[in-house]
């Protein structure tokens, strides 16, 4: 005998709701009184819903209950456990069923309502509950709902009474909805968005759907509004205002609960992300008044391009998840507001709600500050891909209404926001009939926006062709129309900001700007999803696996432009500079003439000014402002920067720095805010050679294999067996505690994850050594010459280098180091490329301060240095580091011409013959490699100094493109020269500028 499995309420994909109200647009303003139900609730956590205590839904339960704050996710309040997976469901794939062990939270609270309140209706609104829930009011079942990232409203008028009322909510962690909520993020549950009671008038304005478009000349606005009344016959008044000025108004009599308004607005002020102009529509009846902000704009596809108000736009966007390091997916208005302001300040003009609708206020803020939004349905069933049955439920008619519900409710809620330009039907869920149906339903509701879904890879039903992490070559082909479909293209995700990186963003931007079909992309992603932790006096952030969660995708969730403490990562500066809407380039062959290209889509350059500076290695010697720019969008103009000729100091570099700044205050930044900074070398050289200082004659002393060459200015020791300079000191104090030694290794970065195995377990690049071939010591005129031949190689490798280190010790106290490295291959195998080629040496640990001349102030890498400029900068060794949550190579600076390392007065000055890459750190690369969290990085006894002839780029290969060929360091011959000297730190600059005859 077989009995069929009993379907539980939360395992029924065809049951979309019980008593939930039809979704409706969120209003910007509403006269209906509200009571927030945020705050403390009674809470009971259970291992399965069936274990609920008898009569829990009744008004009084005498059990001892915990308390929990609403909104919150219960995993961040000590219940259940934290678990992070990218793709995997945490249980067998057997939809719609979910585990019998199904963590459940029962929430209870009381609310007093007075007689006045009861004259009107009572609506209970949940803005977000993860993943499904039942509600009881005063012991009676009031409804059931799901879709974690959308609101649910219940009309509980019949259930409430004067005085105390009891509200009970039972939340299920797993439900059939979970099959559609498999986004790459922490699994979190509970009432995690606001809860409120609305005192809705009997004759309320229930809905007001606004379309605000433009006429065919894009001149005049056409406003239509469909107002839906709850129960009303009578007069509806409406008024349209612009910045407090009345534009029009009227009254309409309604007989059948609906009112249709149509109004033409002459010479309308249009909305775009660059000009977020909003009108205010007020609709009222005798009892109720609501407000909707209106932005007039028209989205179309014309001649193969996405257009806003007839202009082809370029999206410079970012993917945004709701996240907070202490609260998980529970965020606040203030946090989101500052996120959006930051996006604007860093030149972004678009945001994708990956991968679910955000809080209602998110869209208000995007309307107000100006961001184009891809609003995405709460829909992802990625785990099915990994069992090679991606369309299992996506093509199953039994799931169709679930797909439709998630999309339709999003549209019904967010359709009034001018910022929303595309509806995205979800993410990573294969493609099938359920999406086709969802597209139809969306179009039936709203034909004024475009439909997006990356999973529709042939753009069969979508309006845009969307891909993610597309490699440069393929993207170029798409740009050249080399695909079957010809729809406009966007990259819904690219540039994976995991750990150190992404690099190579400029190559993408160049393609976006070159090919009209390519309309930009959205960087992955805004925020690192690290969880704030204090443990044993240590403060740090945990990621997947740190909670004993298995399986887990570990730090794959640490992939944002913002660190969890909200500090910007270097990638944010880089991205901002790469996408900056104004580009300054120097006319070839000219020193003063510049082209200013306007990449704004709507603003002319009259909104910016140019602040220019002539810099003498970072010191400003002339400056000026040019504020008469006027180029129209997508146009350019040429300017002459009127600097005066000047006398160049000896051996000194000059640069022209150009900052493009805002001319007026805007709502996200003040006048003077820098949009873009570029620097141009002036190539004015005044080379002066001088006589190298002299000094006492050098003495030579050899003792137990140690050769000391010294006078009063310097003392250097060479180990005659190891063939190495082992120290550099003066007046008995060591400055270098170990001399140069070749290396090809860096602590691998997340973007090296697919190289790491080869590099470290096959080519053993971290296991290198040098063998001494010979040591020659000569004294030549008054200087000492130590030439050391070495063989450099890695464990069990046939490739390596013949190195000749030539040390010239001068009586002045200078030591010139020249390394000539010649590659060798006696077998066949070698790495395709190396993280770096160069040397490292060690400095005295007491020397913790530094000054350098090179790119700065932040870190820079060959394929990520747009946001750095040449200058003289100060820092400490520790402050040079970027504390990536998952420790990895960081803090590198490119193009360094000299650096000083000091404690108080005297320091070590190292100047390069040709600029080199540079790192300083208080730990070794190996300890950086091993550590899983910053506090685990083991301190070294010395300061580690790297000088790189070449350092490989970062790329975005943790998810996406590798470093471009030109940023891969190939095995190649190289040579580098630098001079070491102990100098008073106040003389670093003068000494660094000296050039010698001899
Ligand atoms: C994409 C996905 C994102 C995220 C990203 C990697 O495939 O859409 O949700 O997983 O990869 O971080
Ligand atoms: Mg996914």
TrEMBL record:
Keyword Hydrolase appears in the UniProt entry: yes
Keywords: Glycosidase, Hydrolase
Reaction(s) catalysed by this chain's protein: Hydrolysis of terminal non-reducing beta-D-galactose residues in beta-D-galactosides
Domain Beta galactosidase small chain/: 708-981
GO molecular function, one term: beta-galactosidase activity
SUPFAM superfamilies in alphabetical order: (Trans)glycosidases, beta-Galactosidase/glucuronidase domain, Galactose mutarotase-like, Galactose-binding domain-like
A GO BP entry: lactose catabolic process
GO cellular component terms attached to this protein's record: beta-galactosidase complex
Keyword Membrane listed: no
EC numbers: 3.2.1.23
Protein family: Belongs to the glycosyl hydrolase 2 family.
This protein's name: Beta-galactosidase
Native species: Blautia liquoris
High-level lineage: Bacteria, Bacillati, Bacillota, Clostridia, Lachnospirales
């Amino acid at each position: 005998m077989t009995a069929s499995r009993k379907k539980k309420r939360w395992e029924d994909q065809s049951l979309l709701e019980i008593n939930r109200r039809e979704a409706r647009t969120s209003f910007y303003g509403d006269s209906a009184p509200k009571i927030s139900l945020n705050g403390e609730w009674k809470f009971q956590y259970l291992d399965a819903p069936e274990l609920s205590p008898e009569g829990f839904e009744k008004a009084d339960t005498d059990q001892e209950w915990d308390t929990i704050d609403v909104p919150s996710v219960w995993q961040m309040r000590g219940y259940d456990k934290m678990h992070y997976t990218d793709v995997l469901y945490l249980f067998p794939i057997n939809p719609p069923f979910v585990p019998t062990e199904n963590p459940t939270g029962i929430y209870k609270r009381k609310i007093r309502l007075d007689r006045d309140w009861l004259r009107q209706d009572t609506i209970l609104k949940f803005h977000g509950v993860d993943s499904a829930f039942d509600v009881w009011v005063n012991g009676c079942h009031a409804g059931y709902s799901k879709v974690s990232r959308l609101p649910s409203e219940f009309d509980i008028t019949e259930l409430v009474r004067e005085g105390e009322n009891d509200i009970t909510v039972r939340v299920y962690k797993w439900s059939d909805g979970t099959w559609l909520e498999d986004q790459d993020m922490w699994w979190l549950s509970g009432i995690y968005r606001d809860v409120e009671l609305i005192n809705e008038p009997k004759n309320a304005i229930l809905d007001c759907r606004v379309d605000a478009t433009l006429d065919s000349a894009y001149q005049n606005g056409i406003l239509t509004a469909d107002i839906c009344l709850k129960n009303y016959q009578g007069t509806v008044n409406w008024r349209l205002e612009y910045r407090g000025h009345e534009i029009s108004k009227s009254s309409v009599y309604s007989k059948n609960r609906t009112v249709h308004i149509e109004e033409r607005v002459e010479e309308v002020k249009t909305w775009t992300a660059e000009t977020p102009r909003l009108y205010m529509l007020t609709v009222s009846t005798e009892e109720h008044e609501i407000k909707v902000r209106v932005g007039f704009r028209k989205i179309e596809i014309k001649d193969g391009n996405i257009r806003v108000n007839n202009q082809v736009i370029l999206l410079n966007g970012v993917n945004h998840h709701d996240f907070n390091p202490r609260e998980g997916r529970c965020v606040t208005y203030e946090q989101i507001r500052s996120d959006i302001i930051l996006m604007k300040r860093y030149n972004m003009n678009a945001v994708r709600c990956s991968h679910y609708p955000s809080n209602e206020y998110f869209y208000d803020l995007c309307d107000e500050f100006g961001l184009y939004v891809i609003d995405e349905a709460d829909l992802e069933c990625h785990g099915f891909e990994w069992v090679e049955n991606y369309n299992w439920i996506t093509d199953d008619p039994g799931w169709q209404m679930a797909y439709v519900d998630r999309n339709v409710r999003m549209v019904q809620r967010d359709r009034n926001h001018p910022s929303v330009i595309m509806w995205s039907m979800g993410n990573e869920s294969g493609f099938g009939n359920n999406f086709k149906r969802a597209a139809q339903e969306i179009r039936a509701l709203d034909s004024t926006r475009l439909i997006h879904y990356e999973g529709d890879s042939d753009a069969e039903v979508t309006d845009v062709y969307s891909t993610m992490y597309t490699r440069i070559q393929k993207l170029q082909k798409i740009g050249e129309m080399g695909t079957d479909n010809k729809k406009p293209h966007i990259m819904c995700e690219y540039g994976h900001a995991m750990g150190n990186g992404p690099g190579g963003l400029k190559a993408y931007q160049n393609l976006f700007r070159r090919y009209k079909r390519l309309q930009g992309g959205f960087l992955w992603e805004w925020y690192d999803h690290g969880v704030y932790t204090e443990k044993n006096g240590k403060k740090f952030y945990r990621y997947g696996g740190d909670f004993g969660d298995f399986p887990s995708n570990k730090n794959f969730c640490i992939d944002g432009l913002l660190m969890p403490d909200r500090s910007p990562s270097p990638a944010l500066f880089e991205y901002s500079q790469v996408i900056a809407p104004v580009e300054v380039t120097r006319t070839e062959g000219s020193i003063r003439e510049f082209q200013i290209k306007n990449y704004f889509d709507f603003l002319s350059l009259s909104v910016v000014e140019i602040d220019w500076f002539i810099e003498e290695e970072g010191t400003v010697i002339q400056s000026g402002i040019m504020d008469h720019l006027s180029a129209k969008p997508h146009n350019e103009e040429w300017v002459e920067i009127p600097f005066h000729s000047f006398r160049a100091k000896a051996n000194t570099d000059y640069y022209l720095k150009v900052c493009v700044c805002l001319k007026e205050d805007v709502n996200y930044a003040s006048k003077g805010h820098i949009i873009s900074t570029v620097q141009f070398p002036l190539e004015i050289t005044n080379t002066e050679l001088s006589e190298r200082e002299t000094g006492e004659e050098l003495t030579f002393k050899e003792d137990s294999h140690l050769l000391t060459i010294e006078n009063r200015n310097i003392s250097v020791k060479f180990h005659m067996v190891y063939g190495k300079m082992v120290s550099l000191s003066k007046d008995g104090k060591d400055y270098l505690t170990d001399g140069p030694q070749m290396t090809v290794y860096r602590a691998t970065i997340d973007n090296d994850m697919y190289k790491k195995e080869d590099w470290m377990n096959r080519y053993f690049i971290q296991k290198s050594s040098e063998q001494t071939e010979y040591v020659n010591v000569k004294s030549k005129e008054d200087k000492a010459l130590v030439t050391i031949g070495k063989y450099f190689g890695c464990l069990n490798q046939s490739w390596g280098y013949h190195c000749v280190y030539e040390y010239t010790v001068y009586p002045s106290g200078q030591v010139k180091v020249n390394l000539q490295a010649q590659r060798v291959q006696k077998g066949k195998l070698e790495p395709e490329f190396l993280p770096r080629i160069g040397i490292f040496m060690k400095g005295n640990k007491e020397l913790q301060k530094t000054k350098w001349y090179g790119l700065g102030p932040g870190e820079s890498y060959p394929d990520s240095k747009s946001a750095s400029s040449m200058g003289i900068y100060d820092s400490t060794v520790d402050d040079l580091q970027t504390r990536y949550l998952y420790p990895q190579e960081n803090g590198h600076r490119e193009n360094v011409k000299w650096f000083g390392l000091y404690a108080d007065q005297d320091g070590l000055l190292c100047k390069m013959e040709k600029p080199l890459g540079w790192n300083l750190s208080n730990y070794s690369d190996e300890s950086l490699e091993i550590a899983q969290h910053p506090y685990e990085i083991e301190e070294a006894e010395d300061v580690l100094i790297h000088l790189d002839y070449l350092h490989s780029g970062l790329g975005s290969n943790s998810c996406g493109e590798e470093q471009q060929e030109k940023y891969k360091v190939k095995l190649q011959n190289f040579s580098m020269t630098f001079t070491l000297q102990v100098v008073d730190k106040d003389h670093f600059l003068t000494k660094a500028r000296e050039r010698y005859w001899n």
